Amino acid sequence: MLIVTCRRIRKRPIALVAMMALASGAGCGSAADPLQGATVQGLPVLAMATLLVRADQSSDAEAYVFNSAEGPVQITGVTAVPVTDEPEGRLVHVGLQSTGASVAAGRGWPPDVPVKPAIGAEIPHGLTGIIFGIVGSVADHNYAVAGLRIEYEYHGQAYTTIAWSGDAACVYGGRNGRADDASCTAFGNKVSAIVEDMSGLY
Fold it and tell me: Which one of 3, 9, 131, 191 is separated from 169 by 20 to 30 angstroms, measured CA to CA?
């Protein structure tokens, strides 16, 4: 099972939101803080992926950032943002889009689109996707993250920003070896509501 929901106010599809962000300059930060999670009309662009995975198989999702500076910023570190009161998935993969192709959700690494290592990579002006994977090690348990905390440098100055992107991984293969679609869907919906609240979407 693979469930992908992409939310913003009025629940516009993510592709449309991304185009609007590029066209309107959404997500622009100040000159002193150029990189931010992508927004439209002041509200965060929030993708939510829910997947059934095997233990230690990554659940992959994508977060979006907008660089308002004329020049690139350089990523120096990436960590996961935990979901309030839910088991945290372990962040195991982070890659920067290398062709502009996006990933709604996926299992295993590398993803189906080309990526380059995120740490040390430069994010150019405009909208960029950061693809990441989380894992959970215990079967019959659910794990999640709310997005990415991104450390970066611009003109020798260090900054931090958050790109919201919910990723829920439902690990199966334990007692009965079978996936529980209904339980996973319910967990994904719960995580989505929490991340929306954490990000200030509603």
Answer: 9
Closest among 131, 68, 59 to 97, alpha carbons compared: 131
Kindly report the backbone phi and psi dihedral angles of residue 163, in degrees, each rounded to the nearest multiple of 5, phi listed first: -110, 110
Q: What is the largest CA-CA distance in the chain?
A: 55
Is 166 within 8 Å of 189 (Cβ atoms)? no
pLDDT digits (tens, 9 = 90+) for 68-106: 999 999 999 999 999 999 999 999 999 999 888 888 899
Q: Are 11 and 47 in contact (CB under 8 A)?
A: no
Identify the three-state secondary structure at position 92.
strand
Give the global pTM.
0.84
Q: What is the dihedral of CA 101, 107, 108, 110, to 10 degrees?
A: 0
Q: Where are the domains of the chain?
A: 2-196
Distance CA 195, CA 165 (A): 8
In angstroms, rounded to a whole number, what is the distance separating the alpha carbons of residues 168 and 59?
8
